[in-house]
Amino acid sequence: MIKAIVAGASGRVGKRIIHMIHQDNGITLVGAFERPDHPAVNKDAGDVAGVGATGVNIAGSFKDVAEQGEVLIDFTTPEATLENVRMAVSRGLSMVIGTTGITGDIQKEVEEIARQTRCVMAPNMSVGVNVMFKIAGDIAGILGRDYDMEVFEVHHRHKKDAPSGTAMRLAQILAKKVGRDLESVAVYERKGIIGERTDQEIGIQSWRAGDIAGEHTVMFGGIGERLELTHRAHNRDNFARGAVRAALWVIKQPKGLYDMQDVLGLRS
After folding, report:
1. Rounded Cα–Cα distance for residues 137 and 90 (Å)
2. Candidate CATH numbers 3.40.50.720, 3.30.70.1070, 3.30.360.10, 3.90.230.10; the one for domain 127-233
3. CATH of domain 2-121+236-263
4. Does the pLDDT at position 268 exceed 70?
5. For the residues of 198-218, what is the DSSP string, one character each?
6. Which of 150, 221, 235, 237 supports an S-S bond with 226, CB 3.0-4.6 Å?
7. Annotated active-site positions, please?
């Protein structure tokens, strides 16, 4: 039985992760935590998640529960994830990172530290989305140089980062397949008299509305036809289920940094 700790235990995804752990016989919840001033601190994590009392109270910091677990599942913020991965490595814990919006220097530091333990880090833990990553790359390899490529993403009104990490990963996959530097060709906004679309650009557009869990579309536009590949998340359970699957997988791996393509055996 794998002993798991959940960061951000009262968050939208954190609560669903606790649900999925509760349903899986191969993993058990031994620790949960939030920031020190969070109103959920000291409450039973199961009660907060809606699965009933578990006997695991939500702590006010990772260090209060770090000694109890084998793997940390983290869907928090970039800054919190950086601190958590530092402690996970120092305590010998494996880690699953699903935090979005990790970029720049924080991303580089998180990845460098994460390689010192067993870690799965992915912008989207959904099995379906990761199959989409694979298929989108294959399609781009066939069509990409002759077709315009655009990425669209839609999320709930509370999402704080844009574009989504999933949209950026899709764009990175497309750019790599056709030999382009994404930083040079990405277009995030179009307004006014912008001129004709260039052959090289990859559009990445974001919409925010209501309670949409997540929707991503890659469009390949040719002359006289277009091909669209879409994934729609109906709720957050797919992210949580994938995170638990990653935790069960990573604990058995050699030290290193992995993503869901490795977990699902989709690495080409």
Report:
1. 36
2. 3.30.360.10
3. 3.40.50.720
4. no
5. PSS-EEEEEEE-TT--EEEEE
6. 221
7. 155, 159
* Identity of the amino acid at 110: V
Tell me which H or E stretch contains 237.
Answer: helix 237-250
Residues 237 and 16: beta-carbon distance below 8 Å: yes
**CA pair distance 143, 120, nearest whole angstrom:** 30
Structure-token match 């990790």, residue found: 102
Q: Residue 73 corresponds to which tokens in the numbers above? A: 């599942």
What pLDDT, in 10s, does the model give residues 5-34? Answer: 999 999 999 999 999 999 999 999 999 999
Mean per-residue pLDDT for 106-113?
96
CA R_g for the chain? 19
Domain segments of the chain as ranges: 2-121+236-263, 127-233
Burial of residue 10 (CB within 10 Å: 0-12, 13-18, 19+) is: buried
Q: Are 60 and 80 in contact (CB under 8 A)?
A: no
Beta strand pairing status for 186-187 and 225-233? Answer: unpaired
213 in Cβ contact with 13 (< 8 Å)? no
How far apart are alpha carbons 224 and 38 in whole angstroms?
Answer: 55
pTM of the model: 0.85
